[in-house]
Structures are given as C-alpha cells and as structure tokens.
Amino acid sequence: MTEELSNYKYRGARAMVLLHEKQMRECLETWKKAKDLNISLPATEDADYQSLETLVVHILRAARGYMVWMCKQLELPDPEINPAPAPEKVEAEADSYLNHVLECWRSPLAELEEARFNKEYKSNWGVIYCIDAMLEHAVMHPIRHKFQLEELMAKQG
C-alpha cells in the first residue's frame, strides 16, 4: 500500500491535513443525518446558526478560510479554493464542494520544513496562532460541530 501524502517534509502537517479530511467527512455525514431528522438549532442571533444550511456553509467556509489564511501567512500561492456554496444550494453541492476543498488542502504545505510551522501570526479574528496551531484548530472545528449536532440529535431525534 502506498502511503498517503508521502511527499510531506513535515509529518506533523501531513497528519493534520489527513485528520482534517477525516473529520470534515465525518462532520458532513453527521450534518446529513441531522438534516434528515429535521433537527432544530438553538435560537441565536449568530447568522451562522440560523439553520442547518447556514451551519454547514459556516463549516465549509471555515475549511476554505483556514488554508487560504495559512498560505497567505506563509507567502505561498493562493490555493484557489472556490467560495462555499450559498445556503440555498449547499445541500445539493456540499459533497462536491467538500471534495474540492479537501483536494485543495492536500498540497500547499507539503514542501515546507517543520520550522516554518512555528512562526506566529494574527488570525482573521484577532487571535495569535502559529501554523501548527491553526492546523489543529482546523481539525477541531468540524469535531466541535459534529459533537454539537450529535447532542441535538440525541435530544430531538
């Protein structure tokens, strides 16, 4: 068996890219189950939580945003990840969009040495992250939303 993403110089980044892919796929499957069960999100003023559709757009948009941010900070080429689908189109386009995002995640960081992952930068929301920490944040984001949806399904389903 050929090792997946064997071209990565820094194995820590390779692990995070593969874990991100796994968690994003699991999160989308959980979202589909929540959608099938017609789960309601708690009332909030947050635009990302107005519906299951806006929630999954948020999750997909964030996956794009993390890699775009990392490439910008590392002065790498734009990873050319398309914007997430609109809420009214996301159910039909989520699978193909996720495949696109994950494919675009696979190569930008491959040739970087480990030392490049430790410099700190200010995130779009004002928190300071090194690239390693942003990768970990990107992995945890779909895990958090999957957990949220699983709890709602347990209560409402």
Structure, described:
- The protein has a single domain, classed as Four Helix Bundle (Hemerythrin (Met), subunit A).
- The mean pLDDT is 96.
- The longest helix has 26 residues, at 11-36.
- The protein is built from four helices and two strands, in the order αααββα.
- The termini are far apart.
- The chain has a two-stranded antiparallel ribbon with strand order 1-2.
- With 157 residues, the chain is mainly α.
* Helix percentage range: 55-70%
Tell me how many strands there are.
2
How much of the sequence lies in strands comes to under 5%
CATH superfamily: dinb family like domain
- In CATH terms, what is the architecture? Up-down Bundle
Please describe the structure with a list of short key phrases separated by commas or semicolons.
157 residues; mainly alpha; Four Helix Bundle (Hemerythrin (Met), subunit A); 59% helix
In short:
The protein is mainly alpha-helical and 157 residues long. The chain has helices spanning 11-36, 52-73, 87-105, 131-156; strands at residues 120-122, 128-130.
Provide the fold topology.
Elements: H1 11-36, H2 52-73, H3 87-105, E1 120-122, E2 128-130, H4 131-156
Antiparallel strand pairs: 1-2
Helix pairs in contact: 1-2, 1-3, 1-4, 2-3, 2-4
